[in-house]
Write a sequence for this structure.
């Protein structure tokens, strides 16, 4: 299994250290910390990709630095009435935002299953988070392979 | 001890107006003795972001499903659950939730498997309550543990299993999923499988009536007249019909079951909770693809 980036590994540890009930409270806290979209994306929702696997509407996009380590910025949008989905997005944001493309691509696809939420949230609900990660990685791959503009 | 029914004239034409309450009624009865308010959502955390005062959370997956069998909890587990939520056998229970009350209707259907007598839906659910600017709170309700008898679940009256669906051919079935799911044409991006169902399509002869047709824009149920247009005139149901409804896991079809049984007064409506996640994968059961319902398969039906 590939190494988790430090920030994400700490989040996973935090989840694993507490009881299931506390994990859900933690997820709720994450959901409240998801930053709003910057204006350039809020004005252009068409620039975001919908993660249709989520049970509630979730949109995401990325920006990749053109040079160097190709650091990746993540942007998410999900309505307040979808706190579970927002919580997942927020975990990925806090765990991965700003990292080099290579580190992000090394995150195991099944990372969402390591949070200890499968029993309470059902595999179906977790699938949304797996899909977010999958789509982020796909966008990163496309972006770093694309010829410089 | 049951609370008085909501005599709102909006419900008068329904077969069982006692099964619905308005937001006004609930707001006036928030602290009424004998009433337990339950919130049942698709999103597991939504209740925790704010809920109707005194409402208790119930979750279809962690509370109502049995973890090890693909089934609902048994009488003992249900009794414990009820006691822990402060519900007595004679409590009036009002359930509401997100998504036009799908999951609320699903919980109500499970309550009905245990014959809980007075269980009602908040018409319009959580969204209508919020749209009207009514208050939500994060304050956890104080629950007084109760005693609830162990009741044997009755799976005969309102629940159908796969063999019974096969026997049902020739009688009306309602597929309440989206048109894309009904036709089997729903497509997904490569490498992003939506679900482990092997085949797309519908049960032969089932009529397509997406569940949301029964809900108005504000999430309330449509009027009796509108529901008759949808289910009788358009879908071809007639009074006295024996009906099976299904969807993907039985949650959306609980909403339709509620409309058929309590609003239109059909007395023989069963929810097939195995639904497409069972039927679509089962060996040697027929399906039909496309928009046409298709005929009863050879060898089945009367």
């Amino acid at each position: 299994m590939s190494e988790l980036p430090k920030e994400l590994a700490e989040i996973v540890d935090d989840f694993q250290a507490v009881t299931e009930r506390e994990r859900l409270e933690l997820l709720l806290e994450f959901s409240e910390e998801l930053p709003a979209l910057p204006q350039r994306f809020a004005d252009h929702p068409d620039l975001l990709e919908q993660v249709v696997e989520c049970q509630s509407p979730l949109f995401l996009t990325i920006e990749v630095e053109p040079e160097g380590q190709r650091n990746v910025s993540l942007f998410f949008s999900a309505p307040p009435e979808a706190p579970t989905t927002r919580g997942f997005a927020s975990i990925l944001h806090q765990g991965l935002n700003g990292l080099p493309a290579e580190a992000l691509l090394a995150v195991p696809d099944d990372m969402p299953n390591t949070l200890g939420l499968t029993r309470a949230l059902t595999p179906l609900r977790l699938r949304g988070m797996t899909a977010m990660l999958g789509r982020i990685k796909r966008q990163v791959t496309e972006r770093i392979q694309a010829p410089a503009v | 001890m049951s609370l008085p029914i909501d005599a709102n004239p909006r419900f008068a034409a329904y077969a069982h107006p006692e099964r619905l309450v308005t937001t006004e009624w609930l707001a006036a009865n928030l602290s009424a003795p004998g009433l337990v308010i339950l919130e049942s959502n698709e999103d597991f955390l939504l209740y925790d972001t704010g809920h109707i005062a005194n409402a208790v959370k119930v979750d279809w997956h962690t509370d109502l499903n049995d973890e090890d069998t693909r089934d609902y909890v048994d009488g003992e587990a249900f009794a414990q659950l009820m006691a822990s939520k402060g519900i007595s056998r004679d409590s009036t229970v009002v359930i509401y939730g997100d998504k036009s009350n799908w999951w609320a209707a699903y919980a109500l259907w499970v309550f009905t498997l245990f014959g809980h007598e007075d269980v009602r839906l908040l018409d319009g659910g959580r969204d209508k309550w919020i749209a009207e600017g009514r208050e939500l709170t994060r304050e956890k309700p104080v629950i007084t543990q109760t005693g609830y008898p162990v009741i044997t679940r009755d799976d005969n009256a309102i629940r159908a299993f796969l063999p019974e669906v096969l026997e049902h051919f020739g009688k009306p079935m309602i597929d309440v999923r989206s048109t894309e799911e009904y036709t089997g044409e729903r497509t997904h991006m490569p490498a992003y499988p939506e679900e482990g169902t092997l085949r797309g399509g519908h049960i032969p002869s089932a009529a397509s009536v997406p569940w949301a047709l029964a809900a108005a824009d504000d999430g309330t149920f449509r009027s009796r007249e509108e529901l008759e247009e949808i289910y009788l005139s358009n879908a071809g149901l007639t009074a006295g019909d024996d009906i099976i409804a299904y969807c993907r896991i039985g949650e959306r079809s609980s909403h339709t079951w509620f409309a058929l049984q309590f609003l239109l007064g059909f007395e023989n409506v069963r929810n097939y909770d195995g639904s497409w996640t069972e039927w679509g994968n089962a060996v040697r059961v027929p399906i039909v693809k496309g928009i046409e319902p298709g005929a009863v398969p050879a060898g089945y039906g009367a």
Q: What stands out?
A: Residues 118-145 of chain A form the longest helix (28 residues). Chain A has one domain: 6-145. The first strand of chain A starts at residue 49 and ends at 50. Residues 10 and 147 of chain A are 35 Å apart (CA to CA).
